[in-house]
Amino acid sequence: MHNLNNSNCFKPNLNLDSIKTSLGEEKAWDMLSQIDSDEICRNALVSFDETRGIFTLKSFGTDFQIFPAKRKVIASSPLGIKLLNIKEYFFELSIVWYLVSAKNIPLSGKWIKPVDVKGGQIFFMGTHKLPLDELAEKYGHDAKGFLLKAGELGGTVCSYADACIILYPFPKVPVNLLLWLEDEEFPPRIDLMLDSTCDSHLPTDVIWSVTTTTTLLMF
To answer: Among the four 52, 102, 208, 211, which has the fewest Cβ within 10 Å?
Structure first.
């Protein structure tokens, strides 16, 4: 079974240091300190406490606080603490890049497959491959459990497939998971879809990280 603490069967073939270098961890924090807070709030749908200099972002139904001056992200909930402590998925870096990259454009409402994202081949290459088959095995006969788990993560139910949920790792980067239960003819299947605007709000590497984290949280 996969989870964020023990993913023995699924290890992303990524080096955290190289990712930070390629995406520019220091650059992201520098940009965050230079962009007007009102613009960030408008683009990323977050709030800002001017007195304390803190942005608040809601992710998976829990709040994260971002301190640009201290270059630090904190969370008080068990889920938030877990996400920040699992360094393989560089969720803290993803948060900062979301704040500086999000655009003031609405969601399209058009769902696309990860492969259709610019550079989306990364989602299906070797150990980058999302563990959707394993997730389908877990919930292949358990639509109720699938929906209950999504509810714990702040997800909303939609009326497609045998069970369908939308999770919000970031306000403008929803992730749609559609479950098709096993029957006499077909094995179980889970499809992951993204709003077509997702690559306007995040670099592709970060989209991969966010979708990977989203999938693993469902185990």
So the answer is: 52
Backbone angles phi, psi at 59, to 5 degrees: -140, 130
3-state SS class at 193:
strand
Q: Which two tokens stand for residue 196?
A: 């077509």
pTM: 0.89
205 vs 157, residue with greater confidence: 157
Amino acid making up residue 94: S
The mean pLDDT of 13-19, rounded to a whole number, is 45
Q: Nearest Cα to 46, choosing from 73, 83, 25?
A: 73
Q: For 82-185, where are the E strands, in sequence order? A: 111-112, 156-158, 163-170, 173-180
60, 64, 90 from 54: Cα distances, Å = 19, 10, 20
More confident residue, 217 or 127: 217
Contacts made by residues 33-42, CB under 8 angstroms, sequence distance 24+: 33/68, 33/69, 35/100, 39/104, 40/99, 40/100, 40/102, 42/104
Q: What is the 3-state secondary structure (H, E, C) of 30-66?
A: HHHHHCCHHHHHHHHCCEEECCCCEEEEEECCEEEEE
> What whole-number distance in Å separates Cα of residue 193 and Cα of residue 187?
19
Q: DSSP label at 123?
A: G
Return the SS3 of 169: strand
